Amino acid sequence: xKLIIASGPNxxxxxxxxxxxxxxGRAHANQIVLYDRRASARHAAIExxxxxHTLRDLGSSNGTYVNGRLVAFAELKPGDLIQVGDTxxxxxxxxxxxxxxxxxxxxxxxxxxxxxxATVPRTESSALPDPRATAVDVGELREDRRKLLALYRVNTxxxxxxxxxxxxxxxxxxxxxxxxxxxxxxxxxxERTGDLLPAAMRRRHAAEATEEVAxxxxxxxxxxxxxxxxxxTEASDPGAGRSTMCAPLHGRQRLQGIIYLxxxxxxxxxxxxxxxxxxxxxxxxxxxxNARLLEARLADERFAAIGQAIAGLSHYIxxxxxxxxxxxxxxxxxxxxxxxxxxxxxxxxxxxxxxxISELVLDMxxxxxxxxxxxxxxxVNDLVDEVAESLGADAEKEFRVExxxxxxxxxxxxxxxxxxxxxxxxxxxxxxxLPNEGGVVHLITRHDPAEQMxxxxxxxxxxxxxxxxxxRIFDAFVTTKGAKGTGLGLxxxxxxxxEHGGRVEVESERGRGSTFTLVLPVQPGPAGRIEx
Length: 532
What we know:
- With about 525 residues, the protein is of the alpha+beta class.
- It has helices spanning about 130-135, 140-160, 165-180, 215-225, 270-335, 340-370, 380-390, 415-435, 490-500; strands spanning about 1-5, 15, 20-25, 30-35, 45-50, 50-55, 65, 70, 75, 80-85, 85-90, 105, 115-120, 185-190, 195-205, 210-215, 230-235, 240-250, 255-265, 375-380, 400-405, 410-415, 440-450, 455-460, 505-510, 515-520, 530.
- It has a six-stranded antiparallel β-sheet with strand order 2-1-11-10-7-8, with no helix packed on it. Strands 13-17-18-19-14-15 form a six-stranded antiparallel β-sheet, sandwiched between helices.
- Helix 5 (about 270-335) runs antiparallel to helix 6.
- It is elongated and about 100 Å long.
- The chain starts with a strand and ends with a strand.
C-alpha cells in the first residue's frame, strides 16, 4: 500500500506503508515525515491488523480525520483520505508502475524491426507549434488545449519538486495522463561511467511477470548521439507491435538522459505527441540538471561545514585537554609535596574543564537531536532561580545577579530540560562577557497576555557583540570567543526555542552589554507533545 499526499505541503510525495507499524508526523524520527506545522511531532500510527491496516491517533493537537470524520481509531480501506493538519493523504493500492512485477530495459538485438515515422531535431524542440496554424478542426483545437494544460501542469510539478526522484514520478504521471502511454521510463546518464541507468518507471496496467522493454540501438543512437526525439512503429507486425517515442533530456550544459514511452500500435502516437513529449523532456532535462547541480553544491557545502566543525571542535578539545594536563601536573606536585593548596588548585582546574567537556557533549546532542520536546507543566521563575544558583557557585568572576521575576507568571507547558539548557547557555555567555569587576547580570521574566507568550531575559553589562556578528550569532560553529568557544551554544538555544514554537531575541551594544530574550508560548504550539 501507499500513502500519497493529495494536498498540502509536499503535494505529490509518495510513501510506502511498511509491513509493520509506522508513525507519521512532523518529527524526523517518524517513518513518514510530514512538513506541516499543524501536524504534531508524532501525530498518528498505522498498524497491521488481520491482513488490514488501522489508523490510530497518538494524542495529536489538531486531531486525525478519515474521510472528513474525526477519529481516534479507524480501519483503513483503499481510497480513504486521511487528514493530518493541512495535509491530506490518500491510502491507495500500489500504483501500476510500483507493482511487484516491474519491467527491465534491455538492448534490442533484432535490428531493422522499427520504422522511424517522425523526428524532432534539437533546434525545434523548445516550443510547440501554434495550434491555430496546424489544427484543422475544433476537435484538434480541443486536443491541443488539453496538451497545453498538461504542459502547464508539468511546469508546476517541476517548480514544486526539489528532489529528483519525486520530480521524475510527478512528471511521468502528467505525461501518462496526456499522452495515454502504456509503459514509460526515464533513464539518466551516470555522471561517472556514462551509462544509462533506470531512474523512474511507470506502467498503466499491472503485470503478473516481469516484462522486458527492448530499445533499438538505432533509436538510442538517434536520441543520444544525434540529439533528436524519435517516433517509431514496429514494422514486422503493425497490428500487434508497439508505437514508441523516445526523447533526449537536454540540460543547459549536457545531456542528462532519455525518456521513453510506448503504446499498442493499434492506437499509435502522432507527430504532435512527439513534439509535446520533446518540449516536456527539455523542461525536465533542465530541471534534472539544476537538481543535480544543487545536490552537488549542497554536498560540497556539507563537507566544508563538516570539515570546519571538526577543525573547530578539535581545536577546542585540544585546549581543554591542555588545561586538564596542566591541572593534573599541579595536582601531582601537590601530592608529591603534600601541598593542600596546590591539590585544591589542580582539582579545581580539572573540575572546570571536565564541566566544559560535558557541556560540549550536551550541546552536540541537543543540536543534532530530533525536534520533539517533551512538555510538562513548568513554573518558569523556579527554573530561572535553579539555573542562577547552580552557576553562581562555580563562577570564576565576582558579579552580582539582579532578579526581576514577575509574580503572576502562568504555569507553562515546556520541556524543562531543554529550557534549563537554554538558560544555562545564556547565563554562561553573560558571565563570560562580564568585566572582571562590577559585573551585573539581570534576570527578568514577563508574561504577555495578548500573545500568551512568556519572555525570559538575560542581560549583562559586559563587552557586547560587534554589529557585524549579530546576523550570524545563531549559526552553528560561529563564535566570538576564538579558541575558547565552539559556536554551538547559541545555535542550540535557537533550535530548542523554535522547537517550542518560540524564538530568541537579542539586543547588543558594543561596550555596554547584551540582552538575550527567550520568547516561549504558554501552551504548546505546532511543535512539541505533552507527556501524560
